[in-house]
Each structure stands twice: as structure tokens, then as C-alpha cells.
Amino acid sequence: MNEFDLIEKYFNWARINPADIGIGDDCALISIEPGYQLATSVDTLIEDVHFPKNTSAADIAYKVLSVNLSDLAAMGATPKYFTLALTLPEFNEPWLQEFSTSLKALAKQYKINLLGGDTTKGQLSITINVTGVVPQNKALLRSSAKAGDAIFVSNTVGDAALAWKQLQQGNQPSQSLLKQFNTPKPQVTLGQALVGVANACIDISDGLEQDLGHILERSELGAQIDLADIPLSEEVANYVQETNDWCLPLAGGDDYQLCFTVPKEKTSALKEIEKELNIKLTKIGVITEQQDFEIKGLDKACQSYQHF
Amino acid sequence: MNEFDLIEKYFNWARINPADIGIGDDCALISIEPGYQLATSVDTLIEDVHFPKNTSAADIAYKVLSVNLSDLAAMGATPKYFTLALTLPEFNEPWLQEFSTSLKALAKQYKINLLGGDTTKGQLSITINVTGVVPQNKALLRSSAKAGDAIFVSNTVGDAALAWKQLQQGNQPSQSLLKQFNTPKPQVTLGQALVGVANACIDISDGLEQDLGHILERSELGAQIDLADIPLSEEVANYVQETNDWCLPLAGGDDYQLCFTVPKEKTSALKEIEKELNIKLTKIGVITEQQDFEIKGLDKACQSYQHF
Lengths: 308, 308
What we know:
The structure is a homodimer. The first copy, chain A, has about 300 residues and is of the alpha+beta class. Chain A folds into 2 domains: about 5-135, CATH 3.30.1330.10; about 150-295, Phosphoribosyl-aminoimidazole Synthetase, Chain A, domain 2, CATH 3.90.650. Chain A contains 10 helices and 11 strands. A 6-stranded mixed sheet of chain A has the order 7-9-6-10-8-11, with helices on both faces. The interface between A and B is large, with 67 and 67 residues.
């Protein structure tokens, strides 16, 4: 099968906005309404680095789009379109069919168009570049936390890292941990709702400790958080109780949750969001003027994920 | 070195438009002036597939950005920003320094910002997603050729394919062939000049025969071209004379030239462009109502490049 047939068969879906020109020319063409900025981000997933060898095509497709959507979520942006660079060791029709079906379902759910791509031969690797729109100057930045802001995190942290640890040890994680690892839900709706409510926001894919650290660094502020307040699932709580390994939930990474800071006057607006979206939002500490990052209860800083 | 230091050191250049937020948040933010559409395209280059193993980091950087800029050129778009997904087998500082310097020089030349990226570990592979802007509804499409249009191609074809063939045979290509293979110049200025002059346009990276075929297919028209009119460098002309292998210039691929169609009334405007840009533009045939693709002088159709 040549590349054109492959794209036509597996990736040329009906477009959400038919006015735009998608796959089938040298470039895709997209119209942006005035008053909006683009938000764009790119992420690559590689076999044996970001997912184990036996991961299903459906889970790979879900995860690679989801981790990219998570970056849009962290800016408060609305997903608009993405491009896909797919490197495959061989042409495998059932794999492509499964990959395409899963990708399309998630894209439809978040109303995001696939508008371009490239397929090449090599080690299995998937790069997605996602683009969204956000009202001009309203994006949730890392750099705009204010002293006195409460620090929140969505849902729980450490579930994916625990699943990954168990897989590496040859143990089968529970369904609920595996779900966080293979098909993490991007917090797009929460991110959009936080525009005008949160001062700063980040997705904690590199781990809560490191990523909250980015907010502090870019905002030139400090924070006090308390281990006792970190939201954990029962399984991760049990793991921490048995091992005292707080670094798994704090620095294990692969958590596609949002960490964000909220000024006092927005507390009731946040309560509304929590209720309306039926999502767990936990206050874990406060932003401080003094530029220290204090984690009450933690003996020593954790080793963060190193890309090399 | 962690990813943040790596990006800070090698890829966090001064931005051309400082109003936009680049590297350093979950997403880059970009403002688009009203009245413009986005044009976006993605291309991956992989070692041993798209370039030989001993290609210099400088040449790899040049080529991967250039082949992407060529897609913008084919739409008549003005380059605006790009993202980079870089997969490296190991952390190699001199390699990164050379790659970064070359990429930055070319980006500066075409006034395009690097606004996001991801670095991962694996088989050497580089994906660039390039985005440009084009006045609303003015992009040069594949689908808008008209019967009677003259068909043109810029510069010469087959040089990169001949260089690649000689390299595979263990021979050293000439400097001029190698230049077309390693550091092909993207025809961005030509593409911009053709807006309002050409009816249809494509870049012929998959080979003139196949890519002109895309214009015909999308425009639902035919063409008559003549081998005697195909513009060849002296070296490629000699090769064809010796071997009668017309498929090398017609289907060898890796030609980052533009093939475009021009209506009669724009002939003098095209002559002006040719003079002003000091570029060789050769008429190779005409678009026909009848949906046949006739190549005068060619015995049988060539085998096109297969991605799998």
C-alpha cells in the first residue's frame, strides 16, 4: 500500500469544520476567528520508552492524543486540530485499523480535527502536534501565580507510576491503575472552566513536584504544601504506607492532571466548577512570597524523570 | 542534562515576534492577524531512510526544516512558526550544537520561529510541523488547475535522486548534486510570488510524475508534457543520455521544486517573477480537458517511491 492509499483509508476522516482544507494538499488550511490566539504543543511517544512493547494499538493512539490534549487543557485552550507523524516498523493493517479507530473516537469526543500527517518506516514512534484556540490574553500560564493563591490538583496522582512500576516488576496492575496508565483522560473541560478563575496552571505529566516547581520558577514565588493533603487513590495510599516511597506519587510522572493556583476571591467560583464537572479538586497548599518550595513531611527531594 | 536544560541551551532562541509565548509553557501561544488562514504541514526524516548514516547534524537540520518549508512554499504561504520533535539515540552535545546552529540559521533566513518541541530517546528521527499564513482563500491548491494552463517547473529535477543513487553505489557525488540532496533550498519566495498568478501548485518531493499527477487528479483534468522540455542539470542530462533512465528525474523524488500551472493571461506576470527572483522556470507542457497524462517520449510509466 502506498502512503496516499494508507492515509485515505485510515486517516482521512470527515472534517468537523468542512470550510478548512485537510489532508490531500501540501498543507492543511485552517481559519481562526479573530480575538483568539493559537495554543500549540507537540509530544512524541516511543515504544519501550513511553509504553511497553505489548501495548495495544488502541491504547497507544488514545494515550498519544490524550497527553497532547492535556497540554491544551493546561492552557485553558479549546482543541482545534492536530497533525500526526507515524513511524511504523512495518505495514500492519489490523494494527492501523485499531489505531485509527481509537484515535478517531477520542478526536471526535474532543471535537479536534486530524488535518495532516506523515507516515514513515522505522522504530515505532508517534508524534502528535496539537493546536487549540484560547481567547486573546486569557490563556492559563505558568508564570502568573500570585502569593496567597491556594494550590489545587485534580483527581489523584501516582496511579500511572504505580502501574508502570508493577508492570516492570512483572506484576499485573489493577484495571483502575492500568486505565490511568494506558488511557489517561485529558482534563480539557476543567482547563477551559479554569479560564478566568485560576491564576496559573500546568499539567503534571513530569510529576507534581517538578511541575509545580515550574510554576514557582516562572512566577518567581515559593510554595508550602503538605504530604498529608496530596490526593491519592487507595492503591497508591497503600503503597506509600507500606514503602514510605512518596517519590512515586510526587515524581513518578505520567499524571495527566492539572495543578493550578486560585486567588481567594475565586474560591466560590471554583466550588461551582467542582460541582458542575463532578471532579475532585484538592487543595494541597499555598503560594508564598518567599521563594522556597517546602513540602511538609518529605525528608528529601525526589529524583525527577530524566529524558537522557 | 535534563530536557529543560537541553531545550534552554540549544533551542530557546530569541523570538521574531516577542508578543508570542514560545518554549517554556505547556503550549506556545501565537497570534494570527485577521484575514489570514493557517497553512500547516508535518514531515519526518529518519536516518537510513531519508538520509544516510554519516550525514552531518548541520545537513540533517537544514534538510528537515527545508522540506517542511517547501510544503508552505507550495501553498504560497509565509512561514510563521514550527515545532520540533527530536528523537536521539544518545545525548551528544557537539551533535546538538551543530544541529541547533544550522536549524537556527535557516529559521532566521525564512523568519520562522521555533515555538515548541519534544526530545525523546530512540532511533534518530526528526519531525517538524511547520505553520505559515496565507491571505484567506488565496492559497495555491492542487485542485484549481484549469484546462489550457501552461505547466511550469522551477530549476532542475533529478539532482538529489542522482546524488542518492551514486551514494548507494559507493561513489562520491559532485558538490552541486550533494547540495541538492543535503541542503535543498525551499522555494518559499517563489511560492509567495505565485499567489494570484498560478492556478495550481505542488512541491515535487515525491517526483514530478507522481506530484503533477496529484494536480491532475484533484483538478479532474489531464496533461501533455514532453520529455525534451524537462529541465535537467548537465550531470542528470548526461546520466539520462547514457542510461535512458528517465525515471530518475521523473520519479526519483527529493526534488524540492515547485510544479505549477499558469493561465495564458498571467504569462507576462510570470516572466516578471522569473526576472525579479532570478530563477529558472521552464514550461514543460499544458493542462488538457481530457483526463489523460501523456508524457511524450516516455515508453512506460515509472515506479513511484513507496513508503512501505
